[in-house]
Give the backbone structure.
Amino acid sequence: MNSLLQRSSRNFLWQHPWQLVLAILGIALGVAVVIAIDLAMESSLNSFNQASKVYTGAATHRIIANDGGLDEKLYSQLRNKGVSHLSPLVTGYVKLAQAGEDSFKIVGIDPFIEKSFQSGWQSGQKENVSPDLFTRLMSEPNTALLSEKTAQNLHIQLNGQLSLITSRGQQSLTIIGFLPNTDAVSEQVLAKLIITDIATAQEVLDLFGKLSSIEIQLATDATKFEAAIRSMLPGNALLVSLDSQEQSLREMTQAFSINLKALGLLSLLVGMFLIYNTMTFLVMQRRRLIGSLRLLGVTRQQIFTLILSEAFLLALIGTLSGIVLGVLLGQGLLQLISGTINAIYFRIDATPLVITPFQLGKGMLLGMSVTFFAVLLPAFEATRLSPVKVMARSQLESGSRRLIKVVGFLSGFLIIGGLAVAFFSGKSINLGLASIFLILFGFGLLTPMLTLCLMKLIECVFGRFLGVLGRLPVRMVSAEISRTGIAIAALMIAVSATIGMDLMIGSFRQTVAQWLHSSLPADLYVSLPGDKMGSDKFLFDQQLKDKIAQLEGVQMVSTALQTKLIAAGELTKTTVYELATKSKQSFIFKHSMDDSLWDRLENQPTIIVTEPYAYHHALQIGQKINLKTNQGALGFEVIGINADYSGDQGHLIMSRQIYRRYWPDLGYTGIGVYARAEADLQQLESRIGQLLTAQQAVKSNQAIYKASMELFEQTFTITEALRWLSAAIAFVGVFSALMALQFERIRQLGILRSIGITSSQLSVLIISETGLMGLMAGLLAIPVGFIVAYVLIFVVYQRSFGWTMAFYFNAGILFQGIVLAFIAALLAGVFPALKMAQTHPAEALRTE
Amino acid sequence: MKTNYLIAIVLLLLGTIWLQTFQFPSTSNAALDSQKHSSSAKNNGSLGAVLSNDSKGFARAYKPQAFSFPNDHGPHNQFRSEWWYFTGNLNNPQGRQFGYELTFFRFALKPDLPKSKSAWRSNQMYMAHLTLTDVEANRFYTDERFSRAGNELAGASNKSYQVWLYDWSAKTEGKVDFPLRLHANSNSFAIDMLLTSPKGYVKQGDQGLSQKSPEPGNASYYYSYPRLETNGTVSVGGKPFSVIGTSWMDREWSTSALSNEQSGWDWFSLQLSDNTELMFYQLRRKDGQHDSNSSGSYITADNSKISLKDHDATITTLDSWKSPHSEITYPSRWRLSVSSQALELEIVPLINDQELNVSYRYWEGAVKVTGTKQGKPISGQGYVELAGYSQ
C-alpha cells in the first residue's frame, strides 16, 4: 500500500514540475540568504580574530593605550620586574609603491619572546622559516617576512625588494623569508601582512619610542597577576583580556548584525510562504485523489505521513541547494559586509569566507523546520475532513471564511501587541525587530478579511457598469479567498517591508544630509593623516596651521584632533577641537543651551558627548565620565549632547585647551579654514595645497559632503541588496502562488471557454484578477509600510545606533510600492493567461 | 678554558635556539658542522650565514692586555661572544645540598650596530641559563631565556658589575663588583644569593690570554674568581631554603672558534678543602685522540696560579651514565691526577641527571671530590661541564 501511495505521490509531483521547482527555489533562496548573511558576518568578525592570531598567538591579554601609544619603556619595566610571557608589537599600515595595491599591515615583533605564544610566525615548520631567519630579521635592518603567495603575486623572490610608501617617503624592505601558511584560510589572512623585527617596524613607521600593544599570555587563573600588572601601568594604558576585546568588537557590530539577520529572516519567512503555497496547491490538486484513497481505506495517518514525506524531500533538496547557493551568495555579501565594518566600525585586513559545520547545520535546521511548519496546515487540511467532504471544494472555502473572521480578531491582537512590544521593550533591538514582524504578520492575517470587504465594495460600486466579465475577476478573488488571500498577504508583507525600509533609508539620508550641511561650516578642510604617535608631529602641525592662518583670504582657522582616550575603562573615540567662532554654530544640540557652555568647555574638565554615546551609556547632562589622563583618573562632566551621525558608537568632544592639560599633544588630524567673503576659494585651495606634504590633503566642504554621502550610500548597499533579495523571493512566491491558482482552475476556465468566452477575454479575465490582487496588496502595503518605517526609525534604529532622525515622507516611494505589487501580480497572470488561451476548452475540461 | 669551545656553543646555541628538542641528539655534530662552514667561509644559508661567516670586523685576542675593573666586567661588544658564568655548591643549615648555575651569554650578531633612532635596533643578543640541583630530592631544574640588548631588556654595564636579561641579574651591591647579588627565578625554582670574594681573581692562560690553537688571534680573554663566599636563598616549588656555600665565576670573551678536529670538552672547576682550586679542561677530538690544546691551572691558597699544560694532568673515566632524555651516554665518574702537585682526586656527580635539555644540550653538574694531596686526605666540591656529546 505504501509503495502505491509513494508512486501516486511521485507521479503527481512529476506532473507539476513548475510548482516543484518554485517550491524548491523558495526554500533554497530563503535558506541561502540566511546562511549567506550568517557566514559573511561571522567570517568578517572571525577574520579579525584570525589575522591577529598570526602575531598574537596564544596571548590571552593585551595592554593597549590611547593614541599616544605605549611607551616602549613600559615593556622593559614589566620584563625587568619579572613579568614574563609578553610580546611587544608595533603595527601600522603602509602602501606598496606598486600601483593599485591595497595597504599592507606591518607588524613588528620581537622574534625572541617565549615560544609558548605559538604565533603564526613562530610556528613555521617550513624549511625556509629557520632559526637564522629570526636572527637575520633582528640583526639586519629593513628585513621582512611575507606570505609566499603574496610574494609570488608581487613577483618578489627570496631576498628581493618590497617597495613601500610610508609617511617618510619611499622605503624598501628585503624579503628574507616566507611566512608559513598551514591552510587556505590562514593564507588569505596572511596575504596583506608584513612581519618585521620591531626595530624595523619602528623605523619604517616612524614610531620611535612607542609600542602599539603588548600581548600577554596569562594562565587561566591569574587574577592576582592581572591586578599586579594593572598596578604597574601608566595612566594612558589599559589591560584588557582578548576575550573581552573580541566581545566588545562583537557588541559594536551587534546592532548591524541583528538588523542584517532580521532581513535574512524576512527572506526566509517569504520563502516559507512559498512552501506553504506550493504544498497547499499540491494538496488541493489532489483533493479528489486523496478522497478516493481515503475511500479505498487509506488512513488519515498514512495521508499525513505522505504529505510530510513529500515536504521532507522538497525541504531536503531545497535546503541543500540553499546551502550551496548561500555559500556563493555569502562570498558576495562578504565584500559588502566587511566593507561596511571597515568603513564604520574597525579595520579588517583580510576576509576569507569561513564555513563552519555549525553554521551549515543551523541553515539546514532552519530550512527543514520552516518547511515542516509551512506544510502542517495543508497536511491537516488534507486529513481533517471526511472522505466525502474532501471531495467538495466549497466545503473548504466556507470553512476558510469562518476562519477568516477568527483570524481577523487574532490579527488585531497581533498588531496591537506588536505596537506595544515596539514601544515598551526598553532598549532591546531584538524586541524592536520582533514587533515589526508581529505587525507585519498581523496585517498579513488581516489581509484576507480586508480583501473580502474591498472586493465587495468594488463589486457594489463598479459591478453595475462592468457586467459579468467585469464582476467575474472580483468574484473570483473573493470566492477563492483561502488562496488569493494568502497570496495577497504575502505580497503585501514584502511590499510594505520594502516601503518601510525605503522610507526609513530616505529619512535617514535626509537627516544625515542636513546634519552634514550644518556640521561643515568651514570652507576648506585640510586632513593630516599619518601616525599620531610621532613625537614631533605636533610641531609640524602647529607650523602648518600658522602658515595657513597667515595666508591671504583666510579669515580664521579651527582644528580638530581625532584620538582615542580611555573612558570608563574603554578606548573611546574623542575629537579634540580648537573651535573658531563660526564652527560653534555647527553643533546641533539635543537640548537647550547658552553660550556659557563654550566657556566651560574651554576652561573646565568638561566634555560634550554625541547622541549615540549618550544613548549607549545612558548619559545625561551633568553626569560625569571617568577619563584616564596621564595624571590618573579624572571625572569629566557632560555639558552637552549633540547630534552626530558619523558613527554608531558615538564619541566624546573636548576642547583642545582642556585636552592639553591632561594628555600629550598629538597635533591635529584636521584643520578647518574659513575664508573671507571676498576670497577666491579655488585659489586659496591651491595655495594651501602647496603647503602640504603628499600625505596631507585639502578639500572643499562640498567635496567632503559628497564623500560623506557616498560613504552613507555605501553603508546602506548591503541593506539595499538584501531588501531586493527578499523582494525577489516575494516576487517568486507571488508568481508561483498566482500561477498555481490559475492552473488549479483549468477546469473552471475551461467551462468559461466552453460557454462562449473567447481566449482573449479569458486572458483579460485572468490578468485582471491577478492585477486586482496586486493592486490590493499594494494599497494595503502603504499604511503598513508607514507603520514599519515609523517603528524602524523611532524604535529599531534608535535602539541600534542611538540616532534620532526625522521622518521624511516621500510619495514616490509609495507609488513605487504599488507599482511593484501591481506589476508583480500582473506578470504572474501573463503566463497562465497565455497558456489558457492556447488550450482547447475540451482539453481543459479533460485535464482533471 | 672553555674558550675554544665557547664559539662552538655560540654557533650551536643560535643555530638551535628555535629548533625542537627532539632534534637535539644530533646537535653536537651540527655544531661542528657549522664550525666547519665557518672556517671554510661557506655561506650555506643557515645560521652560519649570520654568525659564523667569518670573524671579519670583530676584534680578536692577540696579546695579553691588562684587565681594568669595572670596565672589563662590562661587555666587549666588538668581540663575537662573551659570558658571565656562575656555578656553586650550597648547603642549608640542616645539610641539604644544592648546586646552581647562572650564566649570561652575549653574542654579537654583526660587528657593527646600524644607526637607528629605534631603541630596539641592536646587534647584541643575550642568552641566559639557570639550573638548580636539588640533591636530596634527586631533581635537576633548568630554564633559559633570550633577548636582544636593545630597549634595556638585557645587557651589561662597564660602570659597575651588572649583567641582566629581563629580571635575571648579577649586580653589584658595592661600588665596583663585590658584594655581588645573583637573582634569577623560574616558574618552579629560584635563586637569590650574595657573593663575596675573599680570595680575588686569577687571570687564566697567559696573563689572561687563553690561546685556543696555534693560530694568532684564536684566543680569548679569560679571568676567574675561583672561590666566592656565597649565602642566600634557593627556592624549590615555592619553598625557600636559606643556604651558604662557595661559587665560582668565569668571565671570558673572544671571537675565535673551535678547530675542525675537536668534538667537545670536559671541563672541571674544583674547590679543594685546603683553600686551593683546580681548573682543567680536556679537549676531545673527533678521532678519539688526545688533544694537546687541553690546559688548566692550579690556584694556591695565597691565590698564585700554577699553569697546567695538557700533559700535566691525567683524567680517567671510571663510570658512565646514559641520559633517559637524550639517550646520550656521558662519563659520570673520573680520576684526575696532577703529578706536579701530587694530587690524586676522584670526582663524582652529586646526582647523575644534570643534563640541560635547553636549546643547546649539555651536561653541567655539581660534583663531590675526594682524594689525596701529597699523601694526605683532601676533599672538595666543584662543577663539571661535558659538552659536545652525542648519541
User: Anything to note?
Assistant: The CA atoms of residues 32 and 263 of chain B lie 7 Å apart. The first helix of chain B runs from residue 3 to 16. Chain B has a mean pLDDT of 83. Chain B is about 5% helix and 50% strand.
